[in-house]
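Notes, Module 5: Reading structure tokens.

Key idea: the token line is not a picture. It is a compressed description, and you learn to read it the same way you learned to read a sequence, by spotting repeated patterns. We will look at two proteins. The first is printed below with its tokens.
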Amino acid sequence: MDSCCEITFDDVELDEKDMFGREGNGFNRVKEEFDHERFLVALTNYGTAMCAFEDAARYANQRVQFGEAIGRFQLIQEKFAHMAIKLNSMKNMLYEAAWKADNGTITSGDAAMCKYFCANAAFEVVDSAMQVLGGVGIAGQPPHQPLLA
């Protein structure tokens, strides 16, 4: 579980050599790193979605119902097709953002769109994977429900 909080420093003395940027410009200096943060969040979302997809695929090929693996059922296959489309779209968007970053042409808009799309797509992939996993997704070892958090 992520924990976030605000930290405030009052009356902190700092040598000039230890300052990051110039005095009074800290937020602007940190703001320059937001695009990298957005990209890293998008990468994390992709990894989470891929983990859920792979676990659900493994389970669907092992779980037998009505004499065959549930992965052979048409509705389950449709879920996997939609998950694969989302994953492929996420990967392509991440590759494009990485390429732009390497070439110095990435914009804040590019990074924000990548983060936004990957977050939503990851949620949809994990949700579909949870539906395939059924009760195992919530009560199994390990439970997959935290991936939705």
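Here is the second protein, with the sequence above and the tokens below, as before.
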Amino acid sequence: GSAYFAKGDFRNADRMFTDLRRTYPESPHMFEATLLSVKSKIKLYQGADYDSQHLEQSQDMIRMLLEQFPEESGEHREYLENAYKDVRLKLATRDWDTAKFFDNRGEYGGARYYYSKVLRDFPDTSLATESQDRLAAIAQLPDKPEQRAEWLTDFIPEHKNQHKPLIAGDPFDWFRR
């Protein structure tokens, strides 16, 4: 795993370190394998638009390292604490970006949900304060924006008992009636 890590092949490095940790849980190299696996997982994260699995795993592994290996993690404590804060901020950024998406569309119900999620799940990040400010700013705004093309939505009939979309049959069938 270390050779892959040194070459920058973090996916294979993480795979090897994970295999080592699962196969030999009593290994004297457990701390180092877990630490390098954390570093690999952080490097594998591609941003808020991609899967957060690596971040979530690294967050759990950092907590585990600090709890189960207090002596070994001593010399790496500063790195681990900074990495933990960074991982938490990246996870919060995912929900923050979703909240901003809804906020910018005027869908304040969705924005409130994600701002509240940031505030609840990541109170230790700078985005929690910003979420609180945005929640206060949009508190009185409607959950959904005003319908701008009401004439169009009124023109298209609603068939409450219809189980398939209108387009599945003759698209002009409703018009001929």
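Summary for the second protein:
- The chain has two domains: 1-75, 94-146.
- The chain has a mean pLDDT of 87.
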